[in-house]
Design brief:
This protein is an all-beta fold. Helix content is 0%, strand content 53%. It contains no helices and 11 strands. The strands form 2 sheets. Strands 2, 4, 5, 6, 9, 10 and 11 form a 7-stranded mixed beta sheet that branches. The protein has a 4-stranded antiparallel beta sheet with strand order 1-3-8-7, with no helix packed on it. The model has no long low-confidence stretch (mean pLDDT 96).
């Protein structure tokens, strides 16, 4: 069993920054890909950023240059640094963990609201 606990969401003005954190229980983090999805009102859930076991990263086109995903295997934590936030970034952000073997795991979600 893996639990993912997210933190760092909140309300920020456009142009501001937030850093999301997601810490995993258990001992699977270092052998897992991980990242962030978001659910924006009226749209399908979309992958925002991911970081593989080896450190390779991928980003949603609209967040490139503004968001940075990173991981600390010693702390079993994945981060999402979000800069120059836009109202369109408003949504619920979910972290996920995908081990090499076995099922994927999801966090409970954290709300990010960007006011114009």
């Amino acid at each position: 069993q893996v639990q993912l606990v997210e933190s760092g969401g909140g309300l920020v003005q456009a142009g501001g920054s937030l850093r999301l954190s997601c810490t995993a229980s258990g001992n699977r983090f270092s052998s897992s890909d991980t990242g962030w999805y978001r659910q924006v009102p009226g749209k399908q859930r979309e992958s925002v950023a991911q970081i593989e076991i080896g450190g390779k990263t991928e980003y949603l086109e609209s967040v490139k240059g503004r968001f940075t995903v990173s991981r600390d295997n010693n702390k079993a934590t994945v981060y999402l640094q979000m800069n120059n936030l836009e109202p369109e970034d408003t949504g619920i952000y979910y972290c996920w963990l995908r081990p090499l073997f076995g099922r994927s795991w999801w966090g409970q979600g954290t709300q990010v609201t960007v006011s114009a």
